[in-house]
Amino acid sequence: xxxxxxxxxxxxxxxxxxxxxxxxxxxxxxxxxxxxxxxxxxxxxxxxxxxxxxxxxxxxxxxxxxxxxxxxxxxxxxxxxxxxxxxxxxxxxxxxxxxxxxxxxxxxxxxxxxxxxxxxxxxxxxxxxxxxxxxxxxxxxxxxxxxxxxxxxxxxxxxx
Amino acid sequence: xxxxxxxxxxxxxxxxxxxxxxxxxxxxxxxxxxxxxxxxxxxxxxxxxxxxxxxxxxxxxxxxxxxxxxxxxxxxxxxxxxxxxxxxxxxxxxxxxxxxxxxxxxxxxxxxxxxxxxxxxxxxxxxxxxxxxxxxxxxxxxxxxxxxxxxxxxxxxxxxxxxxxxxx
Lengths: 160, 168
What we know:
The complex is a heterodimer of chains A (160) and B (168).
Chain A: H1 19-35, E1 41-49, E2 69-76, E3 80-87, E4 92-98, H2 108-121, E5 127-132, H3 138-149, E6 154-158
Parallel strand pairs in A: 1-6, 2-5, 5-6
Antiparallel strand pairs in A: 2-3, 3-4
Chain B: H1 3-12, H2 29-48, E1 62-63, E2 74-78, E3 82-85, E4 88-92, H3 110-121, E5 131-136, H4 142-153, E6 159-166
Parallel strand pairs in B: 1-6, 2-5, 5-6
Antiparallel strand pairs in B: 2-3, 3-4
Helix pairs in contact in B: 3-4
């Protein structure tokens, strides 16, 4: 062996035996690789629609020509979705239904189409309040949030 | 190599035993170096990565893509049998349903509200932090979600980060 390699040690030479350390490392690495999670998690940001405190003073309503358009999404049992637009300068009251897909899930394609239409028709709308029937599953709620997030920056979940 | 330089090397690595040709020695020093680097990398990934928010039993909804988890914040999980806040069980559920005795005015859950209040008053979750990481099972009914969110909202946790599994 070359001079730089490990070899037998003579008197006075101390040589670290790294074979057990390598063994430990091998076991540790194998354990960590097995226990690692390979799923990729991500998030959707949403707010909670909080009701104003009961003792809050009523704020003065804005002038008629500056009334904001309120956008609500309601999910009924059976994943039927209703997109409701109210208010605005012309005092609109429009409801756009989105029927569930054939397999009973949220019809994402139609929902995306309707949301894009709303965004182009009412560009001042920047947020939506989302509420659902008690039996509607969280999966459906998240699916709607995903669709909404593609066109609107803010989603609020109804908590009351 | 000259005799002088050879003598110098001998001095530097003095008393090294010369190996005979039938003596095989594996050079494991470099292997140990590689293993150390891999181990440090894995430890770093495990400590600061996704494992810290992995659910304890909830089957998260699978979605196409979302945003990256940007901050490590208070974590709440809802699954079939219980609700946890920071990995501590605060409420037992019956097939996702909150017991009626738990419900307060406004649809809040008493135990969950108290758990959030305790977190809010602790130093860890100061008054400024309003973000809550929500890991809910995909089959959680909205009624349960609404009660838990009402409890969170009443303690100031109004910015939700709904965790989903990315569909690859």
